[in-house]
Amino acid sequence: MLVTDLEKWSEAIFVGEPTSSHGNAFGDSYRIVMPNSGVTFRVSTLWHQYLDSRDKRMMVEPGLPASLSFDDYQRGRDPALLTILAGSGRRPVR
């Protein structure tokens, strides 16, 4: 939802990996406990529509892609930050 609002109301350039879902989604889950087994599960109860209903994207793609590998993670490297520091030719980072 934050990415959707930033996309709508700012000129943010997203860096990194795509979002895990699109801007319209079910949410606000309700907890249900099965009476005999005690198994707990959650069911989404509300539809949140932040984007136009015709927007069929499954995710928000970053303007500057930068994937995190396991090697990057082990070495403490941040590919998104390195991509930003390398510059993109779009506008300077201040």
Task: Give a brief description.
This protein is an alpha+beta fold and 94 residues long. It has three helices and four strands.
Description of the molecule:
The chain has 94 residues and is of the alpha+beta class. Helix content is 23%, strand content 26%. The chain has 3 helices and 4 strands; from the N terminus they run αββββαα. Strand 2 and strand 3 form a beta hairpin. The model has no long low-confidence stretch (mean pLDDT 87).
Q: What share of the residues does DSSP label as strand, in percent?
A: 25-35%
Distance between the termini: 26 Å
Count helical runs: 3
Ranges where pLDDT stays below 50 over 5 or more residues in a row are: none
Radius of gyration using CA atoms only? 19 Å
N-to-C order of helices and strands: HEEEEHH
What profile does the largest beta sheet have? 2 strands, parallel
**What structural category do the secondary elements indicate?**
alpha+beta
- Give the tally of β-strands: 4
**Which strand order spans the largest sheet, edge to edge or round the barrel?**
1-4
Mean pLDDT: 87
Q: What quaternary form is this?
A: single chain
How helix-rich are the residues, as a percent range?
10-25%
Instruction: Tell the overall outline.
Output: flat
